[in-house]
Amino acid sequence: MYRILNVRQEKNRDFKIWYTDDYWDLFLWIDAKKQVSAFQLCFGKPDNEHIIMWNRKGNTIKTARVESGEDDPSQNRSPLLYEAGNVNIHQTVLRFEKDSKKMDPALAKLVISRLKASG
Q1: Please, what sign has the CA dihedral across residues 104, 116, 64, 22?
Q2: Which residues lie closer than 8 Å to 17 by C-beta, 6 or more apart?
Q3: Which stretch of DSSP H or E encloses residue 106?
Q4: Cα(92)–Cα(100) distance, rounded to whole angstroms?
Q5: Interval 74-88: pLDDT, tens
Q6: What does pTM read for this prediction?
Q7: 54: buried, middle or exposed (CB in 10 Å: 19+, 13-18, 0-12)?
């Protein structure tokens, strides 16, 4: 996984960091105290994409299946999220541990610890 630089930031929102590769997208939000306030770990792209979302407020994990909304390549539709209770967190953690070796180790460790705590 490699970090995308110059990620568009939203005014009055936490700082966003983005890591990606052909299987993963990881978005992390960093607050003013330099703490991770939330993350979204997307995986299984392009054909079987799912997302795991964590938020420090409530310390909750939610999972969803991502539908691209792109049946017609001439249209740019927004992706849709559908409930997905069948995400294998253990398998996801194993692969993420292997694939996250090139990213910031502290951030990878935080994501892994939150995933392990959830499942």
Answers
A1: positive
A2: 3, 7, 27, 28, 29, 30, 107
A3: helix 105-118
A4: 12
A5: 665 565 555 666 778
A6: 0.84
A7: buried
